[in-house]
Amino acid sequence: MEQLTGRLKAVTHREIAVVFVCALGAYLLRVRQSYDLKPAWRLDVELDHYHNRRYAQEWEKIPPPIITDIESDGQNEVVMATHHGKLQILRVPMKQPGSLILPYIELLNEVSLISGDNDSGTRRHPVAMATGYLDAYQSMIQVRQQVIIVLTSDWTVLCFDHHLQLLWETQLMNIQQDRYYIRDVAMTVVSHKLKSDDRGVIIIGASIGDKFHRVTTLKHEHKKKQEVKDPLKDDFDDLVDEDEEPPVDVNHFSTFALNGLDGSIRWHHLPGDFNEQRTMDQEMFKAHHFKLALRKGLRHEGELTWNHYTQAVLANLPHRWQGRQDTKVSLARFIRDKTTKDDNEETATMATSKLHINSSE
Question: How close are the terminal C-alpha atoms of the chain, in Å?
Answer without folding.
Answer: 78
